[in-house]
Amino acid sequence: MIMRMKRNISMKSFNLFIALMFVLLFAITGITSAHAKIYVVTTTPDLADIAGNIGGDKVKVVSIAKGFQDPHFVEAKPSHMLKLRKADLYLVAGLDLEIGWSPVLERGARNPRIMKGASGYIDCSSGIRPVEVPSTRIDRSMGDVHPLGNPHYLTDPNNAIIVAKNIAKAFKKKDPANAGYYNKRLKAYVKKLIRAQIGWLKAMRPYKGLKVVTYHKNWSYLSKRFGLKVIGYVEPKPGIAPSPAHISKLIKAMKAHNVKILIRAPYFESKIPDMICRQTGARQVVLPLMPGAVKGADNYIDMFNIIISRLTNAARAVGAGR
Fold first, then answer.
1. For 201-217, how does the pLDDT look when each residue is reduced to its tens digit (9 = 90+)?
2. Contact present, 233 and 217 (Cβ < 8 Å)
3. What's the predicted TM-score (pTM) here?
4. Domains of the chain, each with CATH number or no CATH
5. Longest dimension (CA), the chain
6. What is the C-alpha separation between 63 and 256, in angstroms, rounded?
7. What strands, in cross-sheet order, belong to the sheet with 211-214?
8. pLDDT category, 136, cuts 50, 70, 90?
């Protein structure tokens, strides 16, 4: 009898121990879930940098595209799909910038949270006023024209403020318990952007009206914000390689308008721009389109510091602004 009672007591103690372990495990799991970071995947590194500034230590952010890549043409890889499969939020530039590769990744990821239309799909172009919106019917003969307008809106730092607010809104919706944290970081980052932009505008003021040629229509928003006058493009149409006839016409136009600055992004080849500059006496300026594109452009603000520095140095070198 005594032995049986001891066994019963032992079994009750063991069962109580197991029950307590389950309670403790549940509590630990709950704490871990409550403090888990939001896993954010962005299409481009500029969005990733802005998201990191707003989210701080509450988020983990990864970008699919690299800074040195053309964001129109990113190879869709299985590794990208794996990132999207785990994503809580998916931040896209929108305006069809990623139309050639992002839909493939979204379908391959099979993550209903981040499909277009779902709460985890964040179009960062919301609230942006696009330029160069086509007013006529579009066909392939026009090149890579975007029906919704030019998607390179982050070459205007004022638009980065709109994007930062869109991202903060998404974080607060996903993680309302930390809304105050995101608001505080948003306010600090916007203040930093405004302060930096004041300096950039001041630096560029002497060169308002500076005539330039660009390789592609990457810099339309930049030109509008800082007063550059684009008189032509190396590409006859977006995404279309220049013919000898177009190059000859562009060289004549540059000479006629005394254009001494040719701008291109790092991922475009330099052979044709080099030849154009030799024949016109123009100076070629390579500007980073996204963080990571060139050395020192480690984040969005540093990238813009480089953009403004290279533009002003080139303008002084060719005697502009005097």
1. 999 999 999 999 999 99
2. yes
3. 0.87
4. 38-127+149-200 (3.40.50.1980), 204-317 (3.40.50.1980)
5. 112
6. 43
7. 229-233, 211-214, 261-264, 283-286
8. confident
